[in-house]
From TrEMBL:
Name of a matching Pfam family: Abhydrolase_6
Name of the protein described by the UniProt record: Pimeloyl-ACP methyl ester carboxylesterase
Listed InterPro entries: AB_hydrolase_1, AB_hydrolase_fold
Coiled-coil annotated spans: none
Family designation: Belongs to the AB hydrolase superfamily.
Residue ranges of domain AB hydrolase-1 in the record: 22-257
Species of provenance: Algoriphagus aquimarinus
Amino acid sequence: MTSVLKRNNVTVIGEGSKVLMFGHGFGCDQNAWKHIKNFFIKDYKLVFLDFVGAGKSDLASYDPQKYASLDGYVTDIIEICDVLELRNAIFIGHSVSCMIGALASIKRPDVFEKLIFIAPSPCYISSGDYTGGFDQETIDSLLEVMEEDYISWARSIAPDIMDAHNGEELTSELSTSFCAIDPLIAKQFARVTFLSDNRKDLPLIPVESLTIQCSDDMIAPVSVGQYINANTRNNTLTVLEAHGHCPHMSHPAETVHAINAFLQ
C-alpha cells in the first residue's frame, strides 16, 4: 500500500465523500492543479498524484519497459484506486492523462463513473480525414530536437503551449515544471505521448465523459475535441474562450465552471 502511494506521491485532501482524481499532463506534476483545487475542496475528496518521473514521485520506480506505452501509467492509476479503495470516482485529466484515464476506465469500469478531459487528444498526428494538429514530419523533428537538448527545447516550447498571451508568470511556471523532470524520463514520456494513437479506444469508453477544449490550442485543436465527441458515447463537448493548452492554469474560473456544469 505505502509503496504504491509513495511511488506516485499520492496526496488526498478535501471534505466531501465523492472523489475527484486528478491526472496531470506531460511536463507537469500535481502542482499544476493548485489553480483550481480550492474550488472543489469543500465538496469533494481530492486525490492528486505525480506520474513516475514527475514531481516528487519515486524515480527509482521508473522502468523503461513498463512505461514504454501508456499502459504502464494506466496500471499505476488502477493500483492507486485499489489501494485507496476508490469506486465510482470522477477522473479529471489534462492532455495525455485524459487517455490514461480513459484506458483505465475501459480496463476497470468500476473505478470511475465519469471522466473529464481537459485539452485531450487521442492522436497528435494527422492522418487521412483526421486532423490531429501535427504531421508526422513535425513530430519527428520535435522529438529529434528534444533528444539533442531537452532543457532548451522545454524552455522554447513552454510559451507556445501555455500561449504567451496568458502571461510570463504562467509561462515561467510551466517552463520550470518541464525542466524539473529527469530528461531521460521526459524524452521517453514525450515519445510515448506524441506517438500514441488511441482513436480506436474512444468507442470503448464505458462511462459518461466531458471534453473541455480551448478555442485556440496548438497541441490539441478544436477539431480534436470534435472528433472525440463524435466517436465517444455519452460525451459532452465544451469549447472554452481560453487560449493555450493549460486552461486549468490560465483560465481556472472558466474551466471550473465547465466542470461544475457537467457534474451537477
